[in-house]
Amino acid sequence: MIIKIFDVAHGFCAHIVTDSGKSILVDCGQNEETGFQPSNYISRQGRTDIERLIVSNYDEDHISDLPNLTTQLPVQILYRNPSISADELEGLKSEAGPIQPGMRSLLAVWSHHHSTL
Q1: Closest Cα to residue 12, out of 1, 22, 20, 4?
Q2: How far is 89 from 10, CA to CA, in rounded Å?
Q3: Model-level pTM greater than 0.85?
Q4: Which of 8, 55, 88, 105 gets the highest tally of CB atoms within 10 A of its CB?
Q5: Has domain 2-112 been given CATH number 3.60.15.10?
Q6: Number of helices and strands (H, E) in the chain?
Q7: Which parts of the chain fold into alpha helices (H)?
């Protein structure tokens, strides 16, 4: 098993490649200061999809690279906190201001997946 924890400044992102070759991503924050995006890194490693995406936190800094990720690497299974629905989350985020691109992408991925953490 290979585990890489990326420097994404304020958010979080870790990529795990299992012994059987499956690709697991825990959050997908990016580092805007350095331009690092996990989606680009993982694609350059020859990966063609993300077997499992685990979203541990619904703040933008934990999902900011999700728009890029979903265009480059299809997510097969989404794990998320089941205590809130997509509609409730969208409502809460809307109250706080405009919904950011990472959250828009998460809500789109969420609508196609039913797995929970």
Answers
A1: 4
A2: 21
A3: yes
A4: 8
A5: yes
A6: 4, 5
A7: 38-44, 66-72, 86-95, 101-112
Q: What are phi and psi of 44, to 5 degrees?
A: -65, -20
Domain ranges of the chain: 2-112
Residue 68: what are its φ and ψ, rounded to 5°? -70, -40
- Beta strands 75-79; 2-5: pairing state: unpaired
CA angle 44, 59, 87 (to 5 degrees): 110
Provide the CB-side half-sphere exposure for 49 (13 A, CA): 9
- Closest of 47, 7, 69, 57 to residue 27, by C-alpha: 57
